[in-house]
């Protein structure tokens, strides 16, 4: 699998582990803790793999951007976080930056 595909999947897993961490209630709920542990490990493994053929800064920025944008989007969709026009535009800006990094890398 190509480094960019692995990187995108790892970014998606970052959003999963961040959401599971929030749902763990301070590591007091075992199922979200288990989801957090597995997806965090897989996400970091994928990032490390992608960094073997992509520049470190670019790979990390894309990973964080995907994870952050998806985490905010999920929080807004589930009602845990208010969805405002400005917040949506800013998240779209993050996505645009991620796409831009892919195009110039």
Task: Please provide a brief summary of the model.
The chain is an all-alpha fold and 105 residues long. The protein is 80% helix and 0% strand. The longest helix has 22 residues, at 56-77.
SS strand fraction:
under 5%
What is the number of helical segments per DSSP (H or I, 4+ residues)?
4
As a whole number of angstroms, the C-alpha radius of gyration is 14 Å
Number of domain modules:
1
**Alpha carbon gap, first and last residue:** 18 Å
**SS class:** mainly alpha
Major beta sheet summary: none
Q: State the share of residues found in helices, binned by percent.
A: over 70%
Give helix and strand order, one letter per element, not per position: HHHH
Mean pLDDT, all residues: 96
Which blocks of ≥5 consecutive residues have pLDDT under 50?
A: none
Shape descriptor: flat
Report the count of strand segments: 0
What report would you give on this structure?
The chain crosses the membrane at residues 32-51, 58-77, 83-104. Keywords: Cell membrane, Membrane, Transmembrane, Transmembrane helix, Transport. GO terms for molecular function: transmembrane transporter activity. By secondary structure, this protein is mainly α. It has one domain (3-104). The chain has helices spanning 3-23, 30-50, 56-77, 85-104. Helix 1 runs antiparallel to helix 2 (30-50), helix 1 (3-23) packs across helix 3 (56-77) and helix 3 (56-77) runs antiparallel to helix 4. The longest helix has 22 residues, at 56-77.
